Amino acid sequence: MTLLLALATLVFGAGPVPAADAGSWWEPTARPAPDSRISATGAPFKGTDPQGKVRGFVDAHNHLMSNEGFGGRMICGQTFSPAGVADALKDCPEHYPDGAGAIFEHLTGGDDGKHDPVGWPTFKDWPANNSLSHQQNYYAWVERAWRGGQRVLVNDLVTNGLICSLLPRDRGCDEMDAIRLEARKSYELQAYIDQMYGGPGKGWFRIVTDSAQARSVIEQGKLAVVLGVETSEPFGCKQILDVAQCSQADIDKGLDELYGMGVRSMFLCHKFDNALCGVRFDSGTTGVAVNIGQFLSTGTFWTTEKCPGAQADNPIGLVAPPAMAEKLPPGVTVPKYASDARCNTRGLTRLGEYALKGMMQRGMMLELDHMSVKAAGRALDIVEAEEYPGVISSHSWMDLEWSERVYRLGGFIAPYMHSAEGFVGEAAQNAALRKKYGVGLGYGTDMNGVGGWPGPVGPGAPNAVKYPFRSFDGGTVLDRQVTGERTWDLNTDGAAHNGLVPDWVEQIRLTPGGPDVVNDLSRGAETYLTTWKATEKHETGVNLAAGRPASASTTQWWNPFVNYSPGLAVDGDSGTRWASEWTDDQWWQVDLGESRRVGRVTLDWEDAYARGYRIELSDDGSTWRTAWSTDAGDGGIDTATFPSQSARYVRVHGVKRATGWGYSLFDVTVARS
Predict the structure, then answer these.
(1) Using one digit for the tens of pLDDT, what is the confidence trace for 367-381?
(2) I want to staple 667 with a disulfide (CB 3.0 to 4.6 A). Which of 424, 467, 503, 604 is the partner?
């Protein structure tokens, strides 16, 4: 069961009654009775500011429906129930009568071996900031977050097949089945809320599928909900003993299905290395346990290497393996790792690149969090080569050294929901970059994501919230949130559920440096929409070299069973390549067929890459001029940009090899600019 601890660090009731402020657009014509209070009064901000921009906060990472994932019994309680709040907010069956059977809750720190399983109406022991297996996203709590200024919520559909297989469950463990169910329940939640407001389309909870629709929803003062996916084996793309269990056809089919559901952002890997990419490690004891989970799922442990640059993955930790190492087969032990080897050897695979390009073709946004440094760097190389803006870091699982690359592309960053002081501190690290690029900030609550949330600071703390308080825009007054017989106070309860997010933002405002952070948060919705719109408008550049005749100074020939001819660098297949003989002075060239404007050349190098090389252009194939050069090539994907000029022939001229081999190119892309 220790494994579960680590892997996880992976509607109407008795009858409708008139709402308290019936007649106001933000209040329903009828709300279930009994139900949670919202504890907020006043009109939510709607429209735009004097500059024509929307205002509001972005929760870029939440899991509204994770109670439907992991076999249905890891997160206890529901976001809503047609049978009412008492049915929605009740514990898992195995937690009754005194919590003694709640092994997962004990391991994750939410109790000391027992807890009161009763939810509605008393809520003696849950939800709590350190209770990781109880519902935190009851719809009325989400409503309070909206009333307090939130205008975008990214609902990441989430599950993990291995965790599911180890837990009590009432359904199967297929990850895609869980994603389908969570998507369906999200739309059912929208319909449930619509009923309270008089019919389809009238509620405040609006699932959106494009940026224009999201902007319209926010201008109405409502909550735009974006569907994302965070799972370990998307499309069945796990690996077993380093063998991929999916194909390009599976990826295409899966992306089409997700897009059809309304999914617009996703992670390519999460917690375990899969057939698409290597992951950013978990640390300490948790890291050891997740590593064991990876072995049980894939047959391989993490492998590490020294990091070549400033970026690093999280340290796995050098602690003794937890007791659940006994689950490993006889003779198998957890590897030991050098403390100076912080990077996962696994990066973005060729299937992962195919999936990323498929996302780009569909206008979907890539989540960089949880990708290893090697995978994230390669992904950034690919999107930079296409000038693709749809890149997001949503909950502090990306090396901050990548931040400027994300902002330069037009991407979006949202730190995890740390303590107020911790959040202000992390936000400060990128304050200069946000100012430079004129962007706002989001936060990722990761509610229902078993990550842990800010604890109580005490009523006497300098940044203790003074109730009641006003939302950032001044339009809503929020008092202590009441659900059933329980009154919640951020100062004494911490961030126990989603309804306390406005209180947490107020605590940030009261923290030194906090007012500037809240101002950046208020511009988060506009920045997120800007990223999304630019992603939708992006047009993949035309490769002028695709399928054109290519030639080279030499072609590697020693292996008669493998083809390394020059045309393979422009055949559209990233699994084939040109390779030269093993000497420095070599070239590869392509005939564009006629004179074309050329201003950008992108090279996808195999391991045999050039340290020094030139991009040369010619009108006749005989007389060449240098358009761009470097003596500091670092392999991977290189993009050379230069003033656009007319040429029929383009040549990559190797001057100095970086390895003992020759030069080898998977793909060459020639573009106008």
Answers:
(1) 999 999 999 999 999
(2) 604
